[in-house]
Amino acid sequence: MAGKLDLDPLLVARARELAAAAGRPVVDLARTHTTVSVERAMLRLFGLTGADPDGTPWVNRLVDEIVAQNGLAGGVVLPAMHALRRYQPLRGASFGEGLQVLAQKAAAGAVSFGGPFRGAAREAAVRAARRAVSKLDATRLTREKLIRRYGDAPRRPWIYLIVATGDIYEDIPQAVAAARAGADVIAVIRSTGQSLLDYVPEGATREGFAGTYATRENFRLMRAALDGVSRELGRYVRLTNYASGLCMPEMAALAGLERLDMMLNDSMYGILFRDINPIRTFVDQRFSRQIHARAGIIINTGEDNYLTTADAVADAHTVTVSQLLNEYFAHEAGLADGQLGLGHAFEINPDLPDSLRLETAHALLARELFPDAPLKWMPPTKHMTGDVFRGNLLDGMFNLVGALTGQSILLVGMMTEAVVTPWLSDRDIALQNVRYVLSAAGDMAEDFVPAPGGFVQQRAHRVLGEAVELLERIAAGSLLGAIADGTFGIMRRPPDRGRGLDGVARMSEDYFSPFDGLLP
Amino acid sequence: MAGKLDLDPLLVARARELAAAAGRPVVDLARTHTTVSVERAMLRLFGLTGADPDGTPWVNRLVDEIVAQNGLAGGVVLPAMHALRRYQPLRGASFGEGLQVLAQKAAAGAVSFGGPFRGAAREAAVRAARRAVSKLDATRLTREKLIRRYGDAPRRPWIYLIVATGDIYEDIPQAVAAARAGADVIAVIRSTGQSLLDYVPEGATREGFAGTYATRENFRLMRAALDGVSRELGRYVRLTNYASGLCMPEMAALAGLERLDMMLNDSMYGILFRDINPIRTFVDQRFSRQIHARAGIIINTGEDNYLTTADAVADAHTVTVSQLLNEYFAHEAGLADGQLGLGHAFEINPDLPDSLRLETAHALLARELFPDAPLKWMPPTKHMTGDVFRGNLLDGMFNLVGALTGQSILLVGMMTEAVVTPWLSDRDIALQNVRYVLSAAGDMAEDFVPAPGGFVQQRAHRVLGEAVELLERIAAGSLLGAIADGTFGIMRRPPDRGRGLDGVARMSEDYFSPFDGLLP
Amino acid sequence: MIRPYGDTTGDGMVQTSFTLPVPAGRRADGAALQLAAKMGMEPAMLVHSRAMGDGHTFFVVYGRVRHAVDLGAVTVAERDFPLLTATEINTAVKRRLRRKLAIVGACIGTDAHTVGIDAILNVKGIAGEKGLEYYRELTVTNLGAQVSVPDLVEAAAGADAVLVSQVVTQRDAHLHNTREMSAAFREAMPAHRRPLLIVGGPRFDEGMAADLGVDRIFGRGTTPREVASYLVHRLAGEPS
Amino acid sequence: MIRPYGDTTGDGMVQTSFTLPVPAGRRADGAALQLAAKMGMEPAMLVHSRAMGDGHTFFVVYGRVRHAVDLGAVTVAERDFPLLTATEINTAVKRRLRRKLAIVGACIGTDAHTVGIDAILNVKGIAGEKGLEYYRELTVTNLGAQVSVPDLVEAAAGADAVLVSQVVTQRDAHLHNTREMSAAFREAMPAHRRPLLIVGGPRFDEGMAADLGVDRIFGRGTTPREVASYLVHRLAGEPS
Ligand code: B12
Ligand code: B12
Ligand SMILES: Cc1ncc(COP(=O)(O)O)c(C=O)c1O
Ligand SMILES: Cc1ncc(COP(=O)(O)O)c(C=O)c1O
Asked: Which of A154, A155, B121, C190 is the most exposed place for a label (fewest CB within 10 A)?
């Protein structure tokens, strides 16, 4: 694959250096701050489950109480472990059940979380973290075993399909049907509002707009159903959800425990498209990625989204910049190249002359910049219209560019993109489209050889050049400043605004995370 | 363009030699035979128009009477000219009107066509033929002038659209709409039964199945409408019909007189798909092509049709063989390379792996074998189904292959191919498809470079190799024998069977054609 | 009773598209919604409208249709005869008829689409099944394309069954030709000597046999074995 | 009265596609034809049916629909106000209102699709037209996405007009949110102090304004100038 664009390796190296320079201050921020969701994620990893009768999860009740008493800066783990020793539950109860009893008592105002916290609490926390990490490891090993047992997706790109009925019990049969029809990855879309909830709902859910809630139980139900169909098909079908929004780290934890295989997890999506506070996001993001790294989960980044608000040609380089930043943050959090489902999309206005060549140039640039990453190639959405006949055609050209440029994960486009969340038949028509194009094109990438110095190479060089320039400006200033200025997706998001800032704290001197050293 | 396939020039030369060897006996046959339609075509060129009250054209009445009296072997021109001198019409009447009076009298049994035919008849014939040829020349010059005045199609491929309502007065507004929407060429489809009629109907017609009749008046009406829209659009819109069926030479004559710009005119289509006698066809074909040559009309050959009855992969080489034969016959009849709209089609079963690469190999083979011919690239029909969404996608891939391989005339595919003759909206959707793909792909042919020795080159070499082998067998035997054996389109058509054989005669010693030496 | 399914059971969602002979604009959109309402779509979402020239507009409409399908009332041209194997077919003809079955096939009128009838008749067959010529006990005469009705009636004298194909449907050509053909047979011979009349083609409604005066209609996707089984069923009775 | 147009005036031809929750087969095909008949298609040609899993079948049907459209009875949300230029708009506000018009915009509920409302409000605009911010005499506050109704009501105190966008329509989210919003305004302030309520989004039926309790609905393809002209029409009277 490499080399079709004749990219300058020095420029590529320079781009990576600049991305690191731009990202480093943000990593420092993340290393020195914690959030309510990071703390809740730890308790979830410790095994604390369930919710109060109003549906507020016990992790929220417990963290809220500790924060009310102690503030957030010291973290919740030591106070919780310290208190736990005093509120032991019944014999034979699990550690998680113990935590739940603690949370219940705390919620009733019956627990005081004062310190000092001695070595015993610290040791208990580290033991609990070790157990948590081995649960993540076990899940990862189960995945690897099942892939060996059932077999893996037969080819690249993996075929990635969405279900979005708003009811887990409609989603499940549709996901199973999609798998039977050839999907390698099922993404369960969650309700429009979930990312702004500062808690993870509990239990199986049958409501939501344009998707139902991401809950641990829904994860479990769907994964079990996909295990069933994987066995039937002799091919391990992957499951995806979102580690995004105000509960990003908790989502990652639940995904790691319930064997989700990929998670949408972008470093800036929540900031730009959900107006979540930038610092909250970067802190949450780092911990969520550490969990993904350990759990062997592939992340999917969200550069496609920029092209729905910004222009896919004029701002193509912002995609490249964001990919490089996502790569830097991911590596820093311990993710391997094979886990970097960096995103990009076929969003150029189809009325633009040469759009197909521009798309191939962009897609190939991503491919050659990140040769070992399982790139996620996303279909046209912005320029889809109610003309569904045209829609199916655009999706076909998208599939073709995916084949010509060796993409890894193909998010299947739907002809009804501009109309409704996908119908059963839309998915079937879309899959037929993918199957036809991939099979018909075969190894046509072999015949796709951009002319040296020609249109495609020139375009790729130009985008890379613009990306380096932009990175230079960002590194000279700051990433937070660039985000505030509307660099990405034309959304202006200053660091002191946005949702969830009140759930962030600078770590105090005595802050303690039992996962330090355990997670990458 | 040339050279992407690295074809062996010696093998290509050999293929042409073999095609000539296979075709030569058939040309000899054509040179030594005449048909009722060839004779009628001459009279039409002389200006004989109109029909009797039952709708039988006067050319038929006159030719039938002469043949009844004299037989066909001597031709009808001398007897007619001879008789004409005796049955002069009113002063001031045109030559054509004189012929019409003659025909009327002959039909009434009032004319004896006995000879001997003296020099005067011969001279009158040659003068009439000269006038005829200058009419063809004038029409050709008008076309050239109008193209200069209005401008030509802005790009290759020309966009070729069909109208087929079965009513000339519905066809006209649809054709005009299609032109406005971007069509460069309008083909008016004729009724299913017309090719088996041994006469050309008269006047404007509003009937027919899946098309209305090809008549001189319909030609005129449509050409006038297209001239109007050409002026409006500043782009000369071409008109196409069929020189095919039992009246092939007459159709060519009418096309030459009414300024049609292209004609479907294949050397074997009528034999294979209408069960017209092979000898009748080859004789008619030669004269029709001589007229096309002079009139500056581009012929469109029908190799696409073979792939609807035979397999597009297994029998791909029969397309190449037929193209070489069509080229030989065309050159022999005086057509220039720029008039050879050799046909081929995107008819590979889309379920076949690599179908797109196979299609590109085939399309590129035609392109490189006939670099100066305005190749006509035809859309999927056989594997189209009632799934119109899939249909629009297949048509898109067809358009793309057309762009990648530099085709010259693009017959626009319709998503409803398997359902109905095109609706207004089908044409609009199809044109949007073409416009999108051609514009989006731009100069992508530049990036399409079959790997040396790779799949595409290998496939093209193999098809050419098989074509040469088949030509060797045909040249060793005979073309008529090969046709009888079902070589083309799996249709077996022996030379002594099929319609229209009774209208063929071997020329007698005293056969005289006034067009000898005038037409190429 | 069932309803169309978009993405949830019972949601009743359908898609439709059509052209109206009105210039594009708000009035055209309103006209499209009126038509959708008459088709039973409510609410209807007009998701696409596009001018085609000055006088026509094309629309795509999505929406919930109020109709439900009564599965009990579905009229199906169910196969009312057993599907036999080639051996069973040959044996049945041989045992019960004691002579070969004579079959004449053609594409009539000006229709020249022979691929369909050839798929049924020629040895090559279709969909992995051999055509009727392959059956030892059937004698097949395939007259080919564009056969006129009088020629067909003449050629069919003495045949057990006549198989006619019609692919072109514009202006109901297939229906006209079929009616003309069945009338000609009724005219030419008494009912008891008339061969079994079978027509086929991709756009026939299989329920129209009586209306067209034929014994049976076969639609898209027909396979030779179905036809052979039907012939046995009608001409050689059921195997006991 | 006009009819759909396939390839001939009056032919009434339409295309439709849908899924039925029945296993593929002849019965499913019959069910599809029954539905097509209920939609008024006759004759209907079932041109495609395809199994999707064990329990569902997808169909494409073409055919003549018996309905005609009565153009006289078409209900059009015609623009009942004049379309003004930017200068006319500014002048009208200045002359007749003698103060700037205050406009508050938001995407309410959990809907985060701001591109549509931004196209109307931001200077950048859409389709070559500048957004409302560009108008000198309009003061625009764009609250952005996912604004709760109480927050909107608070922010809208004193505004002349509230512009709300709703793009997500699944389970009628847009209708619920709009009703909630208009109810909250009715609750919070007396009718004469209530700002003009305008909603927009690509899937609204523009005829539903009264039903949803708002003053006006703008659908797909709306341009800023239309909205500004409407505001002038309603808030600053017609120019004399
Ligand atoms: C191949 C083809 C041709 C070939 C035919 C070659 C040949 N020797 O048959 C050629 C290129 C010559 C041709 C020409 C024309 N064609 Co054509 N052609 C087609 C095409 C692409 C495929 C048809 C086919 O072969 N199907 C495959 C066979 C196996 O399927 P089938 O016919 O449905 O048969 C099955 C069943 O229906 C059934 N069956 C059929 N007959 C019978 C009979 C019996 C007794 C039984 C039991 C069963 C049975 O069993 C078969 C096996 O399952 C279709 C488009 C399409 N994709 O359908 C257009 C199509 C049929 N053609 C069409 C037209 C209009 C023409 C022309 C008339 C155009 C013109 N004016 O020039 C010409 C002239 C032909 C004429 N005089 O009839 C139209 C018909 C429109 C309509 N609905 O009226 C179509 C639909 C294309 C279009 N959308 O315009 N065509
Ligand atoms: C861009 C986009 C996004 C972007 C939004 C970025 C942003 N900041 O706005 C991103 C990527 C973030 C996104 C996310 C999601 N999206 Co989205 N998205 C789209 C997309 C591709 C284009 C929408 C758009 O920008 N159109 C362009 C604008 C200019 O058009 P418009 O909105 O119609 O606005 C015009 C008119 O309607 C009118 N108008 C609109 N509002 C107003 C208001 C007033 C007052 C007035 C006067 C006029 C007016 O004027 C505008 C200019 O003409 C559509 C698909 C499509 N092609 O339509 C899906 C789509 C809208 N999204 C959809 C969904 C489901 C989502 C998600 C909920 C998926 C999920 N569960 O994760 C998420 C979450 C978003 C959320 N919480 O709401 C669905 C909605 C399905 C439905 N009908 O219910 C769609 C249709 C895609 C699909 N088929 O699934 N999306
Ligand atoms: C990277 C990323 N994260 C998250 C989401 C989903 O949004 P939410 O977090 O609002 O559920 C998307 C939507 O496509 C996305 O691209
Ligand atoms: C080369 C050629 N000639 C003629 C025809 C038309 O047939 P007919 O002569 O029956 O009108 C076709 C049909 O596509 C064709 O391809």
From this structure: C190
